[in-house]
Amino acid sequence: MANYYQPEIETASREQIIEIQNKKLVKQVKHAYENVKYYRDLMNKKGVKPEDIKTIEDIKKLPFLSKDDLRETYPYGMLAVDLKDCVRIQSTSGTTGKRVVAFYTQHDIDLWEECCARAIVAVGGTKEDVCHVSYGYGLFTGGPGLNGGSHKVGCLTLPMSSGNTDRQIQFMLDLGSTILCCTPSYAAYLGEALAEKGYKPEDNKLKAGIFGAEPWTEMRRSIEKSLGIKAYDIYGLTETSGPGVSFECEEQSGMHINEDHFYAEIIDPETGEVLPEGEKGELVFTSLDKEAFPLIRYRTRDICVLSRKKCSCGRTHVKMSKPMGRSDDMLIIRGVNVFPSQIENVLLSAGYTPNYQIFVDRVNNTDTLDVYVELTPEQMQESDDEKAAREKLLVGAMRSMLGIGAKMHLVAPHTIARSEGKAVRVVDNRKLHD
Ligand code: DLL
Prior knowledge:
By secondary structure, this protein is α/β, with parallel strands linked by helices. It has 12 helices and 20 strands. Strand 3 (130-133), helix 5 (142-153) and strand 4 form a beta-alpha-beta unit. The model has no long low-confidence stretch (mean pLDDT 92). The structure holds 5'-O-[hydroxy(phenylacetyl)phosphoryl]adenosine. 5'-O-[hydroxy(phenylacetyl)phosphoryl]adenosine (DLL) is lined by residues 92-93, 135, 141-142, 212-215, 233-238, 242-243, 300, 302, 322-323, 326, 332. 5'-O-[hydroxy(phenylacetyl)phosphoryl]adenosine binds at residues 92-93, 135, 141-142, 212-215, 233-238, 242-243, 300, 302, 322-323, 326, 332.
């Protein structure tokens, strides 16, 4: 564990962590109750007062928060400090009317960057490294989070953002990037593009990659092979700050949660009952010391398992498994959050039938999205040129709604199977490959 930068808290005893969590929770609940009317009302409705919260065990008395609460209170209803004390806004990648907007004070930014720094250190990062950040910069938290973490560690930071693969490759090779941060699907694509240009894995100086923001499993070994690196997972969500809530260490078997900042629970998504360690359920996070956006018992919808098994890296923080899916219907396609309801909105407002089906797959490590929709009998009578023009319009409308491209298939009436119960709108074939 001879690293340039690693806070002692990561190897603290269970008792020390609980003591920290007890203190922080009491303070955080008081802060949220006093400063967020919406949250105070929720607590009052449940008949719980800040004085009832004395230790972390009391967290079970508190209400849950969900994305619906954030949509309802958009944009300022969950803000717990004066807006003038905030220094940053980030947002989720969902593109429908109300995105989730998260606010940060400078303290919150420092805390977030500290978490990302821990993730970089966990993959062997030091001030000798060149950290190549190809997550998107902007409202998405990937770029800004890893950028800040990289600065904290003292790496030379390359703020590449996403896209422009030729330039990514040129800078990676010319400037000797040693740590790559991007989505796993983009890492796979970079590996492929390097090979197509005739480069071998040993031609680059990369040693590690920090890949997250979307589910990935068997992809790990092929990324490692094509880039000649070790590939590590990182998890987070905009609502809790962004990447760095948890991250993998050299053991590559689950992600250590930064327990001094985030308290994790696993619940039964149907009943809300807290499940014991080792059981699969929905992950719920409490941000213990964020000032601007203090989410308490926030339901992530991500399904996973927690483990306190001793880790060979020496870190004592609890580990979460890779998320195994989501308890809602959100799809993550090429790193972008897509809701089937957004697709339905586009189709229905363009005058199509509600008979549609969405197919998601992964071809050559890239997610594909195909939407089949039935024409009405009248539309069916149109000429081929008119149908081609329809298709083009629809592709444009989908792109502006979703932020990513979809292949549209206009099919004859009654092509798509009708359902007698709940319609299966989404067929996600990526699961077959996992
Ligand atoms: O994706 C933050 C992030 C950026 C994480 C860069 C890691 C790296 P959102 O756009 O708000 O934030 O999406 C959050 O993405 O609830 C999960 O469903 C999913 N997700 C994030 N990381 C992982 C991961 C960022 N490592 C949502 N594995 C979360 C699987 C992930 N799913």
